[in-house]
Amino acid sequence: MNHRPYTVVLIVPTGVGAAIGGYAGDALPVARAIAQIADRLITHPNVLNGAQLYWSLPNAFYVEGYGLDQFAAGRWGLRPVHQNRIGIVFDQAIESDLRWRHLQVADAARATLGLSLTDYVVTDAPLGVELRTATSGATWGTIQHPDSLLRATETLIHGAKAEAIAVVARFPDDLGSEALQAYRYGQGVDPLAGAEAVISHLIVKTFRVPCAHAPALAPLPLDPQLSPRSAAEELGYTFLPCVLVGLSRAPHFVTQSPTQATDLWADQVDAVVIPDSACGGSAVLSLSQSAQIITVADNTTRMKVFPSEVGISALQVNSYLEALGVLVAHRSGISPAALRPDLIQLQPFASINPLETKLFQGG
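User: That's the sequence. What structure does it adopt?
Assistant: C-alpha cells below.
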C-alpha cells in the first residue's frame, strides 16, 4: 500500500540562545534522528551547519530562513536537485591570508567532495558587518554596503551561472567580550548568528536562490574549558565546509507555475518541531494552520513566545527524545494519548450554537 511521504519541518531560530541548536551545529543530532523517522526533513542552515563538521542527509532539504518563511506561507515551493553550482562571494574586507584559507577550503571541497563551484567574486567595497544585541539578549546585525553584496551576487548568478550562493563576510573580532566568552563556555547567545541571517535573507529575498553564510574571523586562542557545544567552530580557520555541503543539494525555490511532480509545498507538511518558547516566527504561524505543531520544553530560548500567546494549538513534549516518539506515533496514525496509562473516558461534546457549527471539524 502506498502512503504519502511523511514530511517534518525542524526549526531552531537563529541567534536566540537556544539550549540546543544555539551553538555550532549542536542540533544536527536532532536532525539526524528525525531524518530516520521522516521521509522528508525540511530544516535550515542554523540546524545543519557545524563549521568544519557536517552530515549529509539524503532526505533533508537545506532551506535558508527567509525561503523557509515563504515556503511555509505557500508562496514558494521547494524543488529537489541532484547538484548545485555554488558561487562564493568574498567580502573585500577579508585579509589576504584569511581569504586564501577559505579559497583552499573551496578547492578542497571540489577535490575531496566533488562539489561543483564557479569562480569566485570579491565585493567592490567592504561589506561593513556590524553586530547588535537586543534587550532580550537575542543577536542581530547590519551591513553598511548591501548594494556591494547584491552586485557581487548578481555577477555570480548571471555571469558565472551560479545556482546557489555562499557568502564569506569579515566579521568583527571581539576576543575579549563577555558575550563571546559565555558562548564559548556554552552559556550565551551566538554573537554572529543574527547578522548572518540578515546577509542570507537579503540574497534569498532579492534573487530567490539558495544562500548561506560563513563568517571570516581570526582564529581564537586555545581554551581548555571550551564547551563541547561550541567546539566545532574552533577546529580550524573557516566555517565554510558545512555551508558548501549544505548548498550543494539545497532545493530550488519555485512559484506556483509551472510545477513538477517532485515539487514540495507547505500543504504537504505533516509536523513541525520547534522550541516551546520560540513560536513567534512566520513559518510556525503559517504552518500551524495545517500541520501538527510539536514544541520542546527543555530547548529553552531568549524569545519567550509560547504557543498559547500566539494562538497556536501545540503538543508540548519535554525533550527531543519524546518528540521522536510523538513523530513515530503521528506517522503511524496513532494518537499519542493511547500510549499513556492515564487515558480518560470520552465525554459528551458540549452543545454549540448552530451559527458556530462551521468551527466544528467533527472528531
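The mean pLDDT is 90.
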